Amino acid sequence: MSVLGHSATAEIARHFDGIAVPDHEQLRTPENGLVMLRGRIGGDGAPFNLGEATVSRAAIRLSSGEVGFGYTLGRDGAKAQLIALCDALIQTSQFAGTIETNVLTPLRARVLAERKRKAAETAATKVDFYTLVRGES
Predict the structure, then answer these.
(1) What is the pLDDT of residues 88-136, one digit of tens each?
(2) C-alpha 105: how far from its chain's center?
(3) Which bin fits 124, alpha (ψ -120 to 50), beta or left (φ > 0)?
(4) Phi, psi of 134 (to 5 degrees)
(5) CA 30 to chain centre
(6) How buried is residue 59: exposed, middle or buried, by Cβ count under 10 Å (0-12/13-18/19+)?
(7) 47 with 39: CB under 8 angstroms?
(8) Distance (Å, rounded) from C-alpha 47 to C-alpha 39?
(9) What whole-number distance in Å separates Cα of residue 100 and Cα of residue 126?
(10) Which is it for the CA torsion 78, 81, 83, 89, positive or negative?
(11) Of 6, 9, 15, nearest to 111 (Cα)?
């Protein structure tokens, strides 16, 4: 789900090309809403409400009975629907391998490459501080 959440809608849809998606129905049409973001003082202290974030969600049921749910940050109902479809298909023995090979593996490789690029970019700005100890004689 993380890989799908970090991928663009068009990118996910492009990887679905060539996959014969079975009949399915929308249990929950894509809709937008808000979620409360919570934080903690000092990372482990008292919780507080940080603010709200917009999310989209969708739910799909395949004709074989598997149900998939899709949530994503922002107002992208199409992306939530694709995530829900992917979630439902990965639960089937017929489509699990296809979804893993054609959709998730290339998306995962792209997400990991992007993370490595950002880490290298950040590491290039790293500054090492050290303290020089002077001895008094």
Answers:
(1) 999 999 999 999 999 999 999 999 999 999 999 998 888 877 766 676 6
(2) 14
(3) alpha
(4) -100, 135
(5) 17
(6) buried
(7) yes
(8) 6
(9) 37
(10) negative
(11) 6
